[in-house]
Every structure is written in C-alpha cells, then in structure tokens.
Amino acid sequence: xxxxxxxxxxxxxxxxxxxxxxxxxxxxxxxxxxxxxxxxxxxxxxxxxxxxxxxxxxxxxxxxxxxxxxxxxxxxxxxxxxxxxxxxxxxxxxxxxxxxxxxxxxxxxxxxxxxxxxxxxxxxxxxxxxxxxxxxxxxxxxxxxxxxxxxxxxxxxxxxxxxxxxxxxxxxxxxxxxxxxxxxxxxxxxxxxxxxxxxxxxxxxxxxxxxxxxxxxxxxxxxxxxxxxxxx
Length: 232
What we know:
Elements: E1 17-22, E2 27-31, E3 37-39, H1 53-61, E4 71-75, H2 81-86, E5 94-99, H3 103-109, E6 115-118, H4 124-130, E7 134-140, H5 149-158, E8 160-171, H6 176-181, E9 193-194, H7 197-206, E10 209-217, E11 222-229
Parallel strand pairs: 4-5, 4-7, 5-6, 7-8
Antiparallel strand pairs: 1-2, 2-3, 3-9, 8-11, 10-11
C-alpha cells in the first residue's frame, strides 16, 4: 500500500521537486529549495532498520558526558530494544516508550519500559500528558519512517523539560556511503524521508534547543545529534 503521491515538500511546502532515485517499486524525490529527500509516494509505515545490541549500547553511551537522567522517553520505541540496552548504562533511569503500534505494550509487559504509550505522539491528548516530563528524549531512526517528520520532531521537543537533552539519530543523505552506493544504499529498508543536518539544525534552533554535539553514527551512514533545550 502507498499513500497518494505528494506534489509538495513535506518539510518546507515547496513544489519544486525532482526525482533523485528510482528503484524496484519506489522513488525518492528531493526538494530543490531545502534539499529534503523523501519517498514519493510513501509506503505504509514500516518498522525501520534493525539495530544490533552493541550499536544501541554505543548510542546510549553518547549520553554519559551529561547529567544522569531520572526520566527518559524513547519515541518510536517498537519492542523497546533501545531502552533495554540503555538500562545497562543507566540502571537508575526510568524509561518510558511511545510507539504507533501495540508492540510497546508488550515491551512494558517484558519490563523494558515502565510506561507505554501506544499511539501517535502528535495526538493532542498524549502531547499534553507528556509535556515537559523528561530529562532525555531519544528519537532513533524513527523520523524517516513517519508521514510528517517535522511535526514529529516538534512533538518530541514538547516532551522535553527545559535543560533536558534530545538524542537524535538519522540516516545521512550526504554521507560518503550514500554518494558512493547510490541506489544500493540502505539495502535493508527504505526511509520515507532523508533530512539534511542543516534542516534539523534550523528546526532545533526554532525550538529553543542548542546543539551540543554532532557525530557520525552507524559506520558513518547516519548522523547523531545531541541538543539541549534552553532553560526557562
């Protein structure tokens, strides 16, 4: 199943699109104005790339230079493999999870998260419930598989307390591997959106967040951003 084809950019609204890549039953379009790349038409949401345990632990370790969080929300958590791995590094942190599927309920039953929220983070009732509750909010390879990544990012910032940290990992459409491998990049999954770092930076600035660190992730095929929400 595919959604209707878009005639405008889901990030900035521009109608200046060009086809960047076509493959077996899918196409990627790029916005001429903001360089956002997205699957057009978008397929039904998938589960994203599988993560190895060691990569998840390495991602959690990226938060070690910062104050130990009391509360942590993982968005797009699925079966909560990341919170389960992060507990090895932060055993005293309370982890909650949000996911559009019922898998997060099974994750709570398995003890991987304390609170499970099955649904869309942009639901006004859920956003109101989670507003400013968390010291850390992680969004790992979830935005590329959502219909509206910009709004999802804004919703993630809503759940963050002033002074808290946002942990993002996203596939990098400008990485050397993306340029080298072309259509064979990301052989296991097909992201619906590929967001340049400059777009993410601009959105975080608008959301009163200061980027603290940026680094390559996952063998340089992705990038990681840690940003701090400004107090007050």
